[in-house]
Amino acid sequence: MTEPRKPAPVTPVLTKTWLSPRSWTLDTYTKLEGYTALPKALKASPEQLVQLVKDSGLRGRGGAGFPAGVKWSFMPPNEDKPHYLVINADEGEPGTCKDIPLMMADPHSLIEGCVIASYAMRAHHCFIYVRGEALHCIRRLNAAVREAYQAGYLGKNILDSGFDLDIVVHPGAGAYICGEETALLDSLEGRRGQPRLKPPFPAAAGLYAAPTTVNNVETIASVPFIVNGGSDWFREMGTEKSPGPKIYSISGHVEKPGQYEAPLGTTLRDLLELAGGMKDGIPLKFWTPGGSSTPMFTAEHLDVPLDFEGAAEAGSMLGTTAVQVFNETVSVPWAVMKWTQFYKHESCGKCTPCREGTYWLTQILERMVAGNGTEADIDTLLDVCDNVLGRSFCALGDGAVSPITSGIQYFRDEFLALCDKQKAAPALAGAQA
Amino acid sequence: MTAVQEPKKLEVPEGHVTLVIDDVEVVAPKGELIIRTAERLGIVIPRFCDHPLLDPAGACRQCLVEVEMGGRPMPKPQASCTMTVADGMVVRTQRTSKVADKAQQGVMELLLINHPLDCPICDKGGECPLQNQALAHGRADSRFVDVKRTFPKPINVSTQVLLDRERCVLCQRCTRFSAQIAGDPFIELLERGADQQVGTEATSEITALNKTSEGKEFASYFSGNTIQICPVGALTSAQYRFRSRPFDLVSTPSVCEHCSSGCAERTDWRRGKVQRKLAGNDPEVNEEWICDKGRFAFRYATAADRITRPLVRDKATGELVESSWTEALRMAADGLATARDAKGAGVLTGGRLTVEDAYAYAKFARIALRTNDIDFRARAHSDEELSFLASSVVGTTPENGVTFTAIENAPAVLTVAFEPEEEAPIVFLRLRKAARKNNTAVFHIGQWTTTSVTKTSASLLACQPGGEAAAIEGLATHAPDVVEALRKNGAVIVFGERAAQVPGLFSALTKLSAETGAKLAWIPRRAGERGALEAGALPTLLPGGHPVTDAAARAEIERAWGVDEGTLPAEPGRDTSAILAAASNGKLSGLVVGGVDPNDLPDPALAREALETLSGNGFIVSLELRRSAVHDYAHVVLPIAPSVEKAGSYLNWEGRRREFGTTLEGTGALPDGRVLDTLAVEMDVDLFTQTPASAAGDFARLPSVNDSSANGSRPSMLEVPAAQVPSSLGGPSALLATWRQLLDNGSMQDDEPALAGTARPVVARVSESTARALGLNGTATVSTARGSITLPVVHADLPDGVVWLPADSGDSTVRATLGAGHGDIVTLARGEAS
Ligand SMILES: Cc1cc2nc3c(=O)[nH]c(=O)nc-3n(C[C@H](O)[C@H](O)[C@H](O)COP(=O)(O)O)c2cc1C
Ligand code: SF4
Ligand code: FES
């Protein structure tokens, strides 16, 4: 075993302005070094910016952790077709609460990042696709976009650079699948949100079949800081392969749930400290490192470094760093059932494994939680999960089975306990208790 | 030491890759989908959403296989219907991979958890891909013990397509067909997750937000294809639902008898009755699609007014009475011989004959009636058209003329006086495919933005009805880009039967083709026209296409037919209108009619007068399937067989021979050729057309204009100046634009209420400003001295002062009621309040 890596002291980057008065206004933002990266970026060439982001090692904050600079470099060097930058602000992963707070507290860092990223990718249109329920956030973003236009940070000939950019804030209509980047593009085009076949990848044929890059809010909001601080500075934070700061959203049974910025690689033990420890001192039972689509951890995993590699080595994923903490009062099968109901409700229906699998898994879990499960149901659960994982069209299906397989892996006894009644006097399957 | 045989190295042609599937090395063209390559090796990977003519979806996940690239196995099984082959790829299907096999079994089990077990009452049972593949690749029992998803049964997607949603496996074949192939998104996926379902605007809960059919007319001419490609029994046909089981049916390959596309079909029948028709697979012609008319319109052949016994007019009562064949043929022969020897007898064949039957009529006219008074054109026609057919169409074949494939590959296509979706739906599908897949530039000279225009992404070049010839002549000035596009190698100009109503159009097109090099394609509406042209059912052409004035050709044919030199009349005969005119003023004494409806002719009154006159003072023999418009005037009515009860061939518009055998044997019904053969014998003449095969053999021995060894050449094209159309008529006068709709009052669509339900609404179309100027709100009345038609008004982007009417739909019977046609002047006024 390697020594658990100690987090560097927390020096807020992304969240540093959040507590300033009226932090969301252009006024506050510019007072706190806002829009100082943009002029620098506009003096560089697009290629230099792509290289800078590559060098910084910035990885996508939307869940998959794809290197942002590499993704940007897929955009064609010519402008035969219009290029688009699309910001994924759908923030649908259960437990995730970082993008909306970021846009509420500091929308201009996102907008500044959008201008820089658009310039680097030769895009003149940028869409911010915001989760439809986040009305307040949409209003605030719109206000910030207006301010930025007025100040000349958006529109024609930005800061006399000759570069033009328009930003459109677009509300979604409340479907988890619309956070999946290709479904998001369909939704943005006005269709039912369902994932698209890849290839072609968005960089070749994305929005309106034109070259498109989709990035998460936090990914793009990190860009101005990289431009200002340089890639070496950025790499001082976090770990070798997962550099930089990260906003962990901690929810559940902790004293002070909220957004905590920390370098990638921070452990739950440290995060719990920041969040004031377990609520009422009731011990930790299980938790998700990155939302419900990432297999759950238990108290054994308190010292797993929460970066892309650390989470994966321990059998889960970093996901969106949505840390959901559950104490000993919570039944795992019940929590798993609730999560599975969510996936059943949100499955887009396109592919068989996810559509039918979540439908079936939900019924089994509901039956088990109602006390009408049998031991065979546990095997069926696992086998159906096996038939969904890696068989579905997009990653929603994979995520849907994570709670079930990891829940049974760590807490099989709890599932078995639910079957006791059936052992004594088996009822007909499906019968209510 | 024994020499080890070197394994033979596979040849890898340019643009190909080598891969291994289930341990077999195979060469495949780049871009081929794994599922197809495997299929070529005989390895069938189960699938639902995959369809070779639809864009890949990867939705059902039934076709998963294991793939290794560059020695590295991919972490997840891959959908073989979406992944293309690559050099060095190693694929393991269910036959060699446990992972692939389990993945497939898993997906199959998941598909079945919500599928009802109603196979015994399902139309698809016995020919069901789900049933078959579940047996081959599924588990024997299900572990699913919970509650299945159900839906109220069934919903009407249209009058002819029903949907049982609980059977649907959501493969999206139907919705993709509608959106991609037909361009009619009349069905769509609605809702999400396990609630996802195929539906229509009407079944959607959030209709306003979730518009299907783009909120437009809710009908498709191709919806039947969705039933055929549905891999389960979710989509069924109102006509066939619960009628039969597939294993009780006999399937006979057939050819569609409706339009000139000549689609390959499969006719399924049982106990002497046709139960359904399906699209056959002919990549050169209809691919795997047919239109709904071709699929659903077949019960006309068993309609109550079908004639099965010969009828003769009773001298005493003047009524038609049943008779023996002997008596009827005797009477017909006597009557026709008398007429011939008086002022002569003419032949109107109609446009729906097989080549063999048309040939029999042509030969009968020449040697039994000794006349060239024969015409297949039971519709508006012109000398200019005749001249064009003789100079540019007859004798062309797929080898030297335009084909479906040529349209698909054309850089540019100009359509004029032709409404592809209404007149030749399969041409429309190809044109749409060309525009969608090959970026073909489509131009349409017509009056308004019809569905044929929008769905082929065409540019409309609007002109007055009747002004098409002038529009063609003006292209170089007004639309030089079109002329430029037509100069590209492979460009095509397509036109249809309406061209005969526009003086100068054939001349203008001939010139345009000569100038640009674009090839001309004449696409008639009826299935038999192209064949009748070849068979010589025209006043100026001999069978084989030589002019009747060509003495050498006549002599050769006389020799082949074994008739005396000089038997064949040397003077061109009369065309349909002239035949009828001659009959009505006593210059013709007899008529043999194979199919003519006065209401299809430019002057229905003249036609009626002619029939009236001959019924009094002449002699009419009518060959009929069902009671026709000629019936009441005929002296002898001879029953003939519908296409299902005979063999033969059509020539489709490409000039491609579409041969078919008899589907329903032994019904006793005789093809026209056989009836004419016997009739000729009564007149002491031998036609040698007793059977379609003998007719075809006899025909094949004649010289063809196409074959270079034959002497004589094609006549040159008559030059007709372009018709000038008044630019503005003003007042209540308007120009009439009109053409037939695919689904209309046509008698071959009788007895098909479900089909009729998807016909386009019967409306008059005018421009918004014309409607305003004339105060047409609600309804409009279009009238001539003969009569008037009142219809609801719909606005369209027509030129001002133009009204469009469907030619023969519902109450809109333009020829019959108005005696007018495309390009004629009519009076347009606000409809009488009704
Ligand atoms: C079901 C599903 C939901 C997703 N939801 C989101 C989301 O709400 N926000 C987000 O940024 N990425 C989401 N993603 C990930 C995106 O597909 C995509 O990877 C990401 O937006 C790329 O941005 P990044 O490279 O900056 O991380 C989702 C993925 C899946 C499969
Ligand atoms: S896994 Fe399949 S059904 Fe689920 S959301 Fe993705 S495409 Fe839709
Ligand atoms: S056939 Fe391949 S996913 Fe449906």
From TrEMBL, chain A:
Residues 333-378 form the NADH-ubiquinone oxidoreductase 51kDa subunit iron-sulphur binding domain. Pfam families: Complex1_51K, NADH_4Fe-4S, SLBB. It catalyses: a quinone + NADH + 5 H(+)(in) = a quinol + NAD(+) + 4 H(+)(out). Its EC number is 7.1.1.-. GO terms for biological process: cellular respiration. GO terms for molecular function: 4 iron, 4 sulfur cluster binding; FMN binding; metal ion binding; NAD binding; NADH dehydrogenase (ubiquinone) activity; NADH dehydrogenase activity; quinone binding. PANTHER family: NADH DEHYDROGENASE [UBIQUINONE] FLAVOPROTEIN 1, MITOCHONDRIAL (PTHR11780:SF10), NADH-UBIQUINONE OXIDOREDUCTASE FLAVOPROTEIN 1 NDUFV1 (PTHR11780). This is NADH-quinone oxidoreductase subunit F. It comes from Herbihabitans rhizosphaerae.
From TrEMBL, chain B:
The keyword Metal-binding applies. Residues 15-97 form the 2Fe-2S ferredoxin-type domain. Residues 99-138 form the 4Fe-4S His(Cys)3-ligated-type domain. InterPro entries: 2Fe-2S_ferredoxin-like_sf, 2Fe-2S_ferredoxin-type, Asp_de-COase-like_dom_sf, Mopterin_OxRdtase, Mopterin_OxRdtase_4Fe-4S_dom, NADH_UbQ_OxRdtase_75kDa_su_CS, NADH_UbQ_OxRdtase_ferredoxin, NADH_UbQ_OxRdtase_Gsu. It is an enzyme of class 7 (translocase). Keywords: 2Fe-2S, 4Fe-4S, Iron, Iron-sulfur, Metal-binding, NAD, Quinone, Translocase. GO terms for biological process: ATP synthesis coupled electron transport. It catalyses: a quinone + NADH + 5 H(+)(in) = a quinol + NAD(+) + 4 H(+)(out). NCBIfam families: NuoG (TIGR01973), PRK07860.1 (NF005895). Belongs to the complex I 75 kDa subunit family. This is NADH-quinone oxidoreductase. It comes from Herbihabitans rhizosphaerae.
